[in-house]
Amino acid sequence: MVARGFKICLLVSSLFFIIVAIVIVTLILTMFKPKNPDIFINPVDLENFQLLTPNSTTAPLDMVVTIVNPNYGSFKQVNSGAHLKYRDTIIAEVPLEARLFPARTTTNVSTSADITTEKLIADPNFWSDVEGGVFNLTAEAVLDGKVTMIKIFKLKAKIYIHCGISFNITAVDASSSCISKIKL
Ligand SMILES: *[C@@H]1O[C@H](CO)[C@@H](O)[C@H](O)[C@H]1NC(C)=O
Ligand SMILES: *[C@@H]1O[C@H](CO)[C@@H](O)[C@H](O)[C@H]1NC(C)=O
Ligand SMILES: *[C@@H]1O[C@H](CO)[C@@H](O)[C@H](O)[C@H]1NC(C)=O
Ligand SMILES: *[C@@H]1O[C@H](CO)[C@@H](O)[C@H](O)[C@H]1NC(C)=O
């Protein structure tokens, strides 16, 4: 009798632990499942942007990159590679300093890309775009770093970013749309 009661008790508690384990794992998978950050690129100070200046082969394009980290983990960016492209030609590197993106916060990163003007003006497409009043650039970036969850778990992560930036020359305005993908 004692042995039987013990077996039932063991069975019930094993079942209980299995259920608790399933609940915890499900919670971790849903809550901590990495979400892709939202990225916005806003070129700033466009009124003062001059593509062609005497004695200079580059033109600095200032911009603010807004990164919304929707995750319960922070992301520490260690390395990065980012550039601007006009059609298939890389026309500028975008410097992005190492930094921390805390969990569930929005971070604005200011940067400036030195556009190699000769690459742009050598492209006949550029001049027809200028005549049309609109020209587009793409921005591509890979952020390399670590995701930290509840200060304990550290995982290597990469964030891949692809943006289209559209400049309206007559309105001296720009808009962007980005997609991003986080890979652990
Ligand atoms: C450009 O360079 C030339 C020759 O080096 C110089 O005479 C001129 O003043 C420079 N122009 C500007 C705007 O710096
Ligand atoms: C980031 O910049 C945008 C516009 O440039 C602004 O609306 C927003 O408040 C800024 N966010 C933070 C956290 O600084
Ligand atoms: C520039 O991008 C906008 C928005 O993505 C698109 O509608 C437009 O056709 C593009 N224009 C050129 C000249 O590539
Ligand atoms: C550019 O801006 C002007 C003035 O705001 C507007 O009339 C025009 O439709 C815009 N062009 C494009 C392609 O969005």
UniProtKB/TrEMBL annotation:
Domain of life: Eukaryota
Transmembrane segments: 9-32
Coarse class of the protein's main subcellular location: membrane
Entry GO CC: membrane
Keywords from the named record: Membrane, Transmembrane, Transmembrane helix
Subcellular location: Membrane
GO biological process, one term: defense response to other organism
UniProt name for this protein: Late embryogenesis abundant protein LEA-2 subgroup domain-containing protein
Species annotation: Psophocarpus tetragonolobus (Winged bean)
Origin organism lineage: Eukaryota, Viridiplantae, Streptophyta, Embryophyta, Tracheophyta
